[in-house]
Each structure stands twice: as structure tokens, then as C-alpha cells.
Specification:
It contains 5 helices and 10 strands, in the order ααααβββββαβββββ. By secondary structure, the chain is α+β, with helices and mostly antiparallel strands. The chain folds into 2 domains: 49 residues; 140 residues, no CATH class. The strands form 2 sheets. It has an 8-stranded antiparallel β-sheet. Strands 5-9 form a two-stranded antiparallel sheet. It is elongated, with a radius of gyration of 24 Å.
Length: 199
């Protein structure tokens, strides 16, 4: 073993011994607390860009760029937004595709799914394009309402979903925009549902 190798080995031993001494002097509670503080700091550093409220115009542009042509089928969706979609096996009855870890117009999107209406739904019910924003990401509700003044309250999507809905007609013959948000965070939109009425 060369002198350099021996020096490196001794350095590693000293570092390990120093760490052992630190852990020996530190209680389990203190060590756990220290690790939690480090994890929190790392989380804040990494997640900070996505936790802040994103510019409202990014959502407006995203919504206005969604047309009946871009969401008609899987291939047009992939071509329009440059991402790959995979089958959603969990809800095969009315959910066709879902893709994870997307960023559309600067907005982290947790998932996107294109769903057919359930059997027995109203005759005017069309497929839904649902964008679920990443955890902690929010869009200012008042700013969105100001941009879409025609929005009106609508019924929850199901009896098990207490979240109120806002519906907005783009005054076109092919689309109705629906935005959902949690009851406890009514200033923050976390889900965007784009409903095609006549597809």
C-alpha cells in the first residue's frame, strides 16, 4: 500500500471516528431532530419554485390552448404538449391515459388524464381533460375569476367530493371549462378540468 493510499485510509478512519463521537454525544432525539431539520431545509430549497403561486397568465394560456382538436385522441395530445401518455389501469372504465411529472407552461402538473363520461351520464357530457397540479402549487382564484368573469358555481362532481366547482363557458360551440378547488383553500386552485361538450 502506497503512502498516499495509507493517508486516504487514515483520513477516512478519522472522519468515521469523529462522526461516531458526535453521535455518541448526541441523544437519539437530538439526532432525529437534526435530521428532520436538514430534510426540511432541503425540501424548502428544492420545492420553493413550485410552492409559490404561479402567474395566472400561464394557466390562462394553457386553458385557451386546449381545443377539441388537441384532446381528441392520445396522439394529438402527445403532439400538442410533447409528452408521452401511458394507460391508466386503475380506472379503466372511464379513464384512458395518465402521465406523471409534467411541466406545462411552467406549471408543475402532477398528472393529466383524459376521461370518457361514465355510462348513464347526461347526453351533453363530453370527455374530460383533467390536470392535477403538483402538491403545493396554487393559482390565485380571484385573478382567475377576474380573467373569466362568466364563471358561475356548479354542483360538486360527486356526492363524495365536497369541493365546489366553478364552470366557465368559453362561448364556443365545443368547450366548457370547469375549475375545481378545495373547500379549505378557496383562494387556491389545485385542479383544472377541461370538459368538451360536443366531441
Amino acid at each position: 500500500m502506497s503512502v498516499a493510499d495509507l493517508s486516504i485510509r487514515n483520513g477516512r478512519k478519522k472522519a468515521m471516528f469523529s462522526m461516531w463521537c458526535f453521535m455518541k454525544k448526541t441523544t437519539r432525539h437530538e439526532t432525529s431532530h437534526a435530521f428532520r431539520m436538514i430534510a426540511a431545509a432541503v425540501t424548502i430549497f428544492v420545492m420553493a419554485p413550485s410552492v409559490r403561486a404561479e402567474p395566472i397568465m400561464q394557466v390562462v394560456q394553457l386553458v385557451e390552448n386546449l381545443t377539441i382538436d388537441t384532446v381528441r385522441n392520445r396522439h394529438s395530445l402527445e403532439n400538442a404538449f410533447s409528452f408521452r401518455l401511458k394507460p391508466d389501469e386503475g380506472t379503466s372504465v372511464f379513464s384512458f391515459w395518465i402521465a406523471d411529472d409534467l411541466v406545462i407552461d411552467g406549471l408543475p402538473v402532477e398528472s393529466i388524464s383524459y376521461r370518457q363520461p361514465r355510462p348513464g351520464a347526461g347526453a351533453t357530457a363530453g370527455p374530460l381533460l383533467i390536470l392535477l397540479l403538483g402538491k403545493g402549487v396554487c393559482v390565485d382564484r380571484e385573478a382567475l375569476l377576474a380573467r373569466f368573469p362568466a364563471m358561475q358555481p356548479a354542483a360538486p362532481s360527486s356526492p363524495h367530493d365536497p369541493n365546489p366547482m366553478l364552470s366557465y363557458s368559453r362561448q364556443t360551440e365545443d368547450a366548457t371549462l370547469t375549475l375545481g378547488f378545495p373547500l379549505l383553500q378557496q383562494d387556491c386552485l389545485s385542479k383544472i378540468i377541461y370538459s368538451l361538450a360536443n366531441s
